[in-house]
Amino acid sequence: QVQLAESGGGVVQPGESLRLSCTASGFTFSSHAMYWVRQAPGKGLEWVAVLSHDGSARYYAASVKGRFTISRDNSKNTLFLQLNSLRGEDSAIYYCARDIATGIKARWFFDNWGQGTLVTVSS
Amino acid sequence: EIVLTQSPATLSLSPGERATLSCRASQSVSTYLAWYQQKPGQAPRLLIYDASTRATGIPARFSGSGSGTDFTLTISSLEPEDIAVYYCQQRSNWAITFGQGTRLEIK
User: Fold this and answer.
1) Interface probe, candidates A45, A64, A95, chain B, greatest B C-beta count within 10 A
2) So what's the pLDDT on residue B93?
3) pLDDT for residue B107
4) What angle do CA B59, B65, B66 make, to 5 degrees?
5) How confident is the model over B37-52, as pLDDT tens digits?
6) Which residues neighbour A87 within 8 Å (Cβ) at sequence distance 6 or greater?
7) A110, B46: Cβ pair inside 8 Å?
8) CB B87 to CB A44 under 8 A?
9) Could you say which of B1, B55, B97 has the minimum Cβ distance to residue A111?
């Protein structure tokens, strides 16, 4: 079955960096666009970034553009999110999620999610 | 950025009743809209996409309708396990936004 497992979260100070990973199994990882979505404690969902199945196209939410970088290693079935210049408002559970479609026809809807990794930015 | 506004914020109903959740977009999103269910301590689960297509394994009591700016998620007969927060989500102009959520409580 499809599994997504995030890791790399933790407690950091404002201005510091963190790298999140999402390891995929149970499906052909290289065929799906992948996403990061976050959720601050007790709050709603916020889309962060998307990366196409082959890594050729990526888009970011305005709130993280220029600070976060999404990437992937299809040979290792792993999605990454590099978080730089972290702020208090970046504190959240970060989920990776899979697009419902395969190949270039990404639908930008998410049919499988990981359980998330918690990032806390605090001095 | 397209803003999605969900109503009501909280809905309290009894088992067996019909639940109607609304999502309104600040501009047309055609039918590029999805609904997710999130139970406490869990990741969201896709219920509906393309406004009205049920995702794999989703019970038939969940249905979606609408196009343009007004959308509805209907749960035809509430089950106790439907307690959750429900989010709508749209995609347009290479960006994604979510509604703020509707909390569904069972009386």
Assistant:
1) A45
2) 81
3) 86
4) 160
5) 999 999 999 999 999 9
6) A14, A121
7) yes
8) yes
9) B55
